Amino acid sequence: MALLTTLGLLSGAAGSISGFLGGSKAAAEGKRQLDQFQWQDLSTGAADALKPSLELEQQALDRIQQNKERFADVASQGGDAGSMLAMLTAGEEKTGQQEQQLYGSMGKQMFEADKVRVQDEQMRRGMQEQRDFNKVQSLQAQVAAGEQMKSDAITNFSKTIMSAGIGQESANAEAGYDPMGMFQFMMKKPR
């Protein structure tokens, strides 16, 4: 009976120590990974380099400028000052409207590109924040599990020691030893 009790106590103690070491390792690994965890840089995105092609609008602006020069040439060629002024004014009005339309189109394209960039950035941030949140939660759960393993190991080891103490008291009682008698005897010793 004493052999089986001793073997049981030894295996319980070994299991407790193993559990404690495993818990310590898991908790330490989780803490290490949490300490080394770095948030992803969100400063660049897929739409950051998005630039609308404004080549057609630029070509149209170049043609408008050429037309203005032609109007000025034609107006300078003929007639009196009143008709030249009327011709230049009409040309300026026509080309001014065309320029306004082109600049409006260019502004709209740039606004749409900016809108796409903002949407892309919001999507990237949301996705990355969720990934990072999940990663941190996982690492925190690993630390908590390791700490729980250590706590369970200490509890089991304490139970093993208590079992050993109870077993020893039982063995002493069977052998006729009175542990309280020994304690009282030691307390009555002259000083």
Explain the layout of strands and helices:
Elements: H1 2-36, H2 55-77, H3 81-175, H4 179-187
Helix pairs in contact: 1-3, 2-3
Class based on secondary structure composition and strand pairing: mainly alpha
Q: How much of the sequence is in beta strands?
A: under 5%
- Report the strand count: 0
> How many domains, in number, for the residues?
1
Number of helices, counting only DSSP H or I runs of 4 residues or more:
4
Write down the overall mean pLDDT: 76
Order of helices and strands: HHHH
Provide the low-confidence segments as ranges: none
Return Rg in Å.
Answer: 44 Å
Sketch the major β-sheet.
Answer: none
Distance, first to last CA: 41 Å
Shape: rod-shaped
Please provide a written account of the structure.
- The structure is a single chain.
- The chain is an all-alpha fold and 191 residues long.
- It has one domain (2-187).
- The chain contains four helices and no strands.
- The chain has helices spanning 2-36, 55-77, 81-175, 179-187.
- It is rod-shaped, with a radius of gyration of 44 Å.
- The two termini are 41 Å apart.
- The model has no long low-confidence stretch (mean pLDDT 76).
Feature tags:
191 residues, 4 helices, rod-shaped
Please summarize what this structure is:
The chain has four helices and no strands.
